[in-house]
Amino acid sequence: MLNINKKILTDEAMHPLAVQIDYQDWLIIEQLLSTVDTQAMKPSAVERAQQRVRHYIPAGRSLADELIAERRREAEHE
């Protein structure tokens, strides 16, 4: 099992918003993820992963839309 040092970032109400990890840990995770064949994953494994994430994300919230908006704001300030 990979030992990852992480810091949970929360909002004012102490709801988890993000996880901050060391860059070296991210490189290891990225390498591991690149070896995963997502096409070979059983649908049930994907569904279980989605359910786990859904627990932390309120209905109607789009993390993809938020990320795109954040990137656009950052690009405007460059």
Characterize the structure shown.
The chain is an alpha+beta fold. It folds into 2 domains: 1-36, no CATH class; 41-78, no CATH class. It contains 3 helices and 2 strands, in the order ββααα. A two-stranded antiparallel sheet has the order 1-2. The radius of gyration is 15 Å and the shape is globular. The model has no long low-confidence stretch (mean pLDDT 84).
Instruction: State the share of residues found in helices, binned by percent.
Output: 40-55%
**Overall spatial form:** globular
**Class from secondary-structure proportions:** alpha+beta
Count of individual helical segments: 3
Tell me about the biggest sheet? 2 strands, antiparallel
Rounded to an integer in angstroms, the radius of gyration calculated over CA atoms is 15 Å
Number of strands: 2
Strand order of the largest sheet: 1-2
Number of domains: 2
Beta content? 5-15%
Order of helix and strand elements from N to C terminus: EEHHH
Question: Termini separation (Å)?
Answer: 39 Å
Low-pLDDT ranges: none
Mean pLDDT: 84
Compact summary:
With 78 residues, this protein is an alpha+beta fold. The protein is 49% helix and 14% strand. A hairpin with a 5-residue loop joins strand 1 and strand 2.
Brief descriptors of the model:
single chain; 78 residues; alpha+beta; two-stranded antiparallel sheet; 3 helices; 2 strands
Secondary structure: elements and pairs:
Blueprint lengths: L5 E5 L5 E6 L1 H12 L8 H12 L8 H14 L2
Antiparallel strand pairs: 1-2
